[in-house]
Amino acid sequence: MSEPAALLALDARRSVPSRQLGEPGPDAATLLRMLQSAVRVPDHGKRVPFRFLKISGDARHALGAFLAERALQRDPDISAAQLDKDRQRFSHAPLVITVVASPKPDAKVPEQEQLMTAGCVCFALLQAAQAFGFGAQWLTAWMAFDPAVHAHLGLAEGEQIAGFIHIGTPKTPVPERDRPDAAALLQDWTGTA
Predict the structure, then answer these.
(1) Secondary structure letter of residue 21 according to DSSP
(2) For residue 135, is pLDDT > 90?
């Protein structure tokens, strides 16, 4: 029996480190097509608890400058190497899509479920990028959880960053890595404690 193409695409997924992503990135039409696929995620109640911020061009460097300032505020003893790492975080891939989780109050759809929907969008966007031949990496790090970064990016109260999706063309081939054994993770639940 042949394997379905969709499963082969899932099996082929690789994260490409953002430092190994370069030009070109997707053009506007390709990005929009990728986002159209990324929004096709489970979304109980059709809450659409997510939105996107596109960071490209000089905006990547401006965000890096802000992150360096903020990192120094957070830790005045930060090393020069770590400070430079924070400054350069968004400078490698030509495009970074910030997936913003925007949970909405709903008695039937808990916030946690809405946050998982935003996480599914991140994964679907990785798949869409790879389908077009791009490399991508889903990153967070401290800046995804920092209130000053949230304010700088214009997040509203209650919004969170689900992920920064770095997208570009891989500079080198991406090797496979060890994956968990699904059979070892599977248990039967028999209805008894």
Answers:
(1) E
(2) yes
